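TetR/AcrR family transcriptional regulator: structure tokens wanted.
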Amino acid sequence: MPDIKHFDPDAALDTVVRLFWRQGVAMTGIQDVVTATGLNRSSLYATFGGKQELYLAALRRYQEQWSRPAFRGLADDRRGLPAVAEFFDALIEVRCSGEYARWGCMVSNAQAGAENGDAEVRAFLHRHHEELRDALCAALVRAEAQGQLAAGTEPGVTADLLALLAYGVNLRSRTGADAGSLRATVGAALRSLTSRTAE
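Answer:
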């Protein structure tokens, strides 16, 4: 007979996401995972594999639940620069208030942590960056078509710049930067891209 799981793997993974997100990989041991999920080690290993496999599963879960919905919303928005401004407003809101305030972004935390030494993690981070950059670029292409961008502003290069700004927001919020200062920085960056006729 097949082994019957007496727990919900999705619910367990959601708990693991929050644990790795808040504490990082280096500060999270398997015993922390056991305590947080209420599962025994054999159940964890049988379902997810070792700590590294569990971390990669948590990264993918974070991407599906948090990153991709935001990226899709940005890429599908037809407004151009207002959509980019709204994307950053929502980012700052979730990073600076509510249940996940000061946790930063699980992906940005991985960019800055020792876990990026793993080849699979690096590949994941690269793909995630490309998705962020592509969503920003799509919004900027629409902004350009609507005459919102300053002359000489190239959507692809600017998308890379704004992706770096998003990482900065994530990391600075984790160390206590207040929402007002982050919004002021983002506002200055977006104003530098804006055509005077669009202001």
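The mean pLDDT is 93. Residues 58-198 form a domain with the Tetracycline Repressor; domain 2 fold (CATH 1.10.357.10).

Cheers.
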